[in-house]
Amino acid sequence: GQNIDQPTEMTATEGAIVQINCTYQTSGFNGLFWYQQHAGEAPTFLSYNVLDGLEEKGRFSSFLSRSKGYSYLLLKELQMKDSASYLCAGMDSNYQLIWGAGTKLIIKP
Amino acid sequence: DAMVIQNPRYQVTQFGKPVTLSCSQTLNHNVMYWYQQKSSQAPKLLFHYYDKDFNNEADTPDNFQSRRPNTSFCFLDIRSPGLGDAAMYLCATSKGSPSPYNEQFFGPGTRLTVL
Q1: How far is A104 from chain B (nearest CA, A)?
Q2: Which residues of A touch B44 (CB under 8 A)?
Q3: What is the pLDDT of residues B5-37, one digit of tens each?
Q4: Which residues in chain B have their CB less than 8 angstroms from residue A99's CB?
Q5: Counting Cβ atoms within 10 Å, is residue B84 exposed (0-12), middle (13-18) or buried (19+)?
Q6: Cβ atoms of residues B65 and B46 within 8 Å
């Protein structure tokens, strides 16, 4: 079956760094997406990885290891506005997104 | 600005009373998706259209129907809403054929309450 696993909730301090892990199992693989979703709002696209390695985009970076079925999202210099849920989604061979339930990130001052 | 618009943002209906949610887009994207998302859960894909080609997910209940009269608009009809259908309904679009390189753009969602 297809499955995405990520922690339910994480807490971090403003200004610090946090890493949100995701493991995936999909039927075929066409890449791994990270979305940010603030409470009561729609998800917004953060990053896409299809090749192994690290993709950096400002304060956010995303890493992929296809052999391990593993990805992480790294957030640096945390700000209070980064408090949100972070959704990991794998794209299967039919180009459908298989979504995780999201990791709720709580930022404390 | 080009965007995905959903109306209404909040919808209240009574148990068993049909309801229609609407989505429009100014992005001129070929693909439109409807997702159901319950609190602290992953979005669940209900249907998607690639142009007029309708694709129903195998586990989408018959109670849910969809229409796409033109490129810009897509509707979600819930024929007889039950209490379990209370959720956020998200519309999303992507450009071209479904592919890894075409990220999905989401509307703000419609939060459905069933009384």
Answers
A1: 8
A2: 99
A3: 998 999 999 999 999 999 999 999 999 999 999
A4: 42-44
A5: exposed
A6: no
